[in-house]
Structures
1.
Amino acid sequence: MLTYSRLAYQAHDHQRCIITALERARVLCEESHARLTPIREIVLKTIWASHQPLGAYDIVDNLALNLHTGKRIKAPTVYRAIEFLLNLGLIHRITSLNAYIGRSFPENTHNDFFLICRICHSTAECSTEQMNSIILHTAERTGFQVETQVVEIIGLCPKCQQEKVS
Amino acid sequence: MLTYSRLAYQAHDHQRCIITALERARVLCEESHARLTPIREIVLKTIWASHQPLGAYDIVDNLALNLHTGKRIKAPTVYRAIEFLLNLGLIHRITSLNAYIGRSFPENTHNDFFLICRICHSTAECSTEQMNSIILHTAERTGFQVETQVVEIIGLCPKCQQEKVS
DNA sequence: TTATAAAATGATATAATATAACATTACTAT
DNA sequence: ATAGTAATGTTATATTATATCATTTTATAA
């Protein structure tokens, strides 16, 4: 019943995550006649560097370090790239962290929810049919028309549970 | 199956909401040997003035208008009152609005979720057993240990749906 | 191919939300 | 009454995000 899940904290070849994400971004942009400019691409790559959501100013700092080409890319530019990527569905905003993370399942029509580790901030993206139907049913019963949803579960990932014990 | 719901947008005697909330706050503070100081009480009252979540600086402004006793209560004081009320479970933080709303069911042990109108921001507090069990089951299956949750459904309340049509 | 419009980025300033740090005041309990 | 704790006052500043206008780049049509 777990339709999708990318469990950040399980071992996986993360280079593949990045390559796949970038490739998918290129295809999607081509299809929708949107331009994946160098700035947008490097912002996406920076966000995909980990499964920890990244704040906008973290991205600014990261670019300053990794580009070291004299001129710094400033906040508004990063926010514009973020907006572009959000609109295309290539990244998610994690509201409770004010941070951004790569979207693992752009093809997924269900709404996603997130398992966010309070300690290491690693964030897993999931989606179930059930969750969606409960939300829709409950809302409908009260006459409320659902548009979007923010479902963020905060707790401890397996690794940080371990380290708390030891 | 809808365990609780306070449907902000349904007609109700809101004065009663406020009176009940304040009374409950007094009792709870007494029980837990916490002090419901004048500032904390007026912040709670201000938040309860409507079923729209209120930003911290909205509260600051409100107090300036309604107290008009020379000295303004400043942001840190309001944030401290907010923290106190959050800890006691008397208010909720609505993450997607950076705002605070009175808690309708402090006795509810389930976790709450919110139906938030995109236009008028009226916010209904709900909770169902089902939602909780899905979240717990999904999380457990991945080895994630749930602590808290943010479930905010954004859409249109019945009233704003009407007004969109007309 | 160049002129032109549209899109993207640069640059500066500032809004909005939240907290740190330390001083002062008020309350509680002996 | 007084010491110790809790709450509030005050100032400064951190953090996240956006508005505005200038400049550059890209796409396209004459």
Note: Residues 35, 37, 55-57, 75-76, 79, 98 of chain B lie near DNA strand C (CB under 10 Å from a C1').
2.
Amino acid sequence: MAEVTLRDVARAAGCSVATVSRVLAGTRPVGAETARAVRAAADRLGYRPNEVARALRSRSTGTVGLVLPQITNPFFPSLVRELEHALHAEGRAVLLADCDDDPATEATRIAALLDRRVDALLLIPVDERRSRDAVAAAAARVPLVLLDRGCGPGVADSVAVDNAAGMALVLEHLAATGRRRPCFVGAAGTASAAVERRVAYAAGAAALDPAAPQRTVLGDFSVEWGRAAVDRIWSARPDAVVCANDLIAAGALQRLRQLGADVPGEVAVTGFDDVPLAGLADPALTTVRQPVAELAAEAARLLAHRPAAAPIPGPRRPVRTVRLAPELVVRGSSAPADGGSDPRTTP
Amino acid sequence: MAEVTLRDVARAAGCSVATVSRVLAGTRPVGAETARAVRAAADRLGYRPNEVARALRSRSTGTVGLVLPQITNPFFPSLVRELEHALHAEGRAVLLADCDDDPATEATRIAALLDRRVDALLLIPVDERRSRDAVAAAAARVPLVLLDRGCGPGVADSVAVDNAAGMALVLEHLAATGRRRPCFVGAAGTASAAVERRVAYAAGAAALDPAAPQRTVLGDFSVEWGRAAVDRIWSARPDAVVCANDLIAAGALQRLRQLGADVPGEVAVTGFDDVPLAGLADPALTTVRQPVAELAAEAARLLAHRPAAAPIPGPRRPVRTVRLAPELVVRGSSAPADGGSDPRTTP
DNA sequence: CTACCTCGGGAAAACGTTCTCCGGAAATTT
DNA sequence: AAATTTCCGGAGAACGTTTTCCCGAGGTAG
């Protein structure tokens, strides 16, 4: 009773293994009579196909590797969730790999997944530059879609939010609510989200007021940096602190409160990503929401449409890049100083 | 160049497939000369064993299924991370399944993982009662360890924090800092963490002051419920709100602030789990830290020591239950009303 | 009546490992 | 010196599918 195989079902149904396989996989028409008998037998014995054997024979494991920098980054869980659901809906399973924010670990994990013969990889690269080689190598072996962050031009298909558009939304909102002396707290390094957001800020701020001095400080995507950054900029008394993500913003908010600053009266604070804690901060954080569900759906779609590994490494197929529109979520942390409530404000 | 197999290596090394396998798997001593030749050939060709074929033949996929209720619950990511690292360190890969907090989905996911022939399952059950059948069935087929939440007595090995001890730490701390009229905001339902925490609260509160009336309200483990709960209890003016987890506590804190209550001066608030946002709340949340790394290590250890599925379903092996000691993390939300700072306070 | 399809079904060859036999050579024992 | 053990290595059978052949029966067309 330990393991019911095709042979057992065949024996019970009084036909050959091939026939059973055909009935169950629906791979070729089979006589109605036999089909019923087979299905009955399979049912009665509680047959469950061995996915491993199937994978070996058909050279497809029905498995997708999901590689991400750090599952503890609060932006990822909801993304993982959506991806898991999208893939499971197609009958594919998800092999998860956490890279500890380390490119070397990332390379190891990718190799392990390839050894396991994943059909495809979904990958959020740790670093735009230092992840490139491993990613390019992997992309040559299986369909691969980059998520959320890019990895150099032409390396692989990718899906991400339009960071520039998001930053523009923030700046526009701040300008519309009378903020005139914004200041940017970003992340250094070559991670594409970091780069795109700081470039977009610089461009947008300059467009709004070419005369204003640009005040920008760079650290990493952490709460600690948010706290530290405030100490570096508060002396200039900005009336808005634009942060490169919600973690930074949460840290900034905390420190500003400690310093006795009035948010949003004296200074507005904005984030990026709309992670769960954004709504819980006090005041609740105005931020840019990433369309997580669409991101996941689009990634799954790209995978499905990526014709399996080319038999001969022919002319490099052009990579596809999808940019999704973000949405501004206005909350208390950027309410107009005059106290007028924005209709879009969420509790 | 698409796929280097044992045969290719054997051909290149001038020996048989069996020998190559033996050298590479170190499964039987092989002549030094041949071994070198084989390794050289494997190296030169860039041979990588096909894990799928290996799995089929050796009846072990080197894969563990990780099934959890909702990856978006902020307590899980760090647990997932630790588990992933512990398992990858043993060369096992993690198949992730998210159940959307639904027992039916959970059953589906478990079945899918079993079809994929996972070597073992790590499972955080959605619900103590409604998950039981599926879990018991799975436990009969592969080694299975329950994490964080139980699933009825004798169903499977389990590892969890000692919720009673954690709740006792909280009550003791509150009593020591002069709180006399605590009130409990818990979660209804049969999830074991919910049950254990509310039972422990009731027991502990009664022990501290048998005369005091027990004030307890029950909802679920969400921020929204935390907010709503405050409206139900604030009229009784408790001097401490003990919450069943950090999400509830975060909601409670938020609502109390809206109501103009002074935390911690007028009322202390405590949580449970020590999720990342606990430290970010204002004031930072006093809570009970779960020893996540130990939890993961212990779970991995149980898996490793669980002798693979018994060939004959012999006498039910007694299940092992591990309870780990929690740690109280005192932060601002329960600072003594007199303003005296607790030495253990963390920023 | 012969020739040619179609249709349902079986035998058996893959897929890439691991592992059990087996056999010969060398080393050890009697 | 014969008998036994040890050591290396190869042939080939699994593992449980899918898929390619091939075959016979029945139908239709020439």
Note: Residues 15-19, 22, 28-31, 34, 53, 55-59 of chain B lie near DNA strand D (CB under 10 Å from a C1').
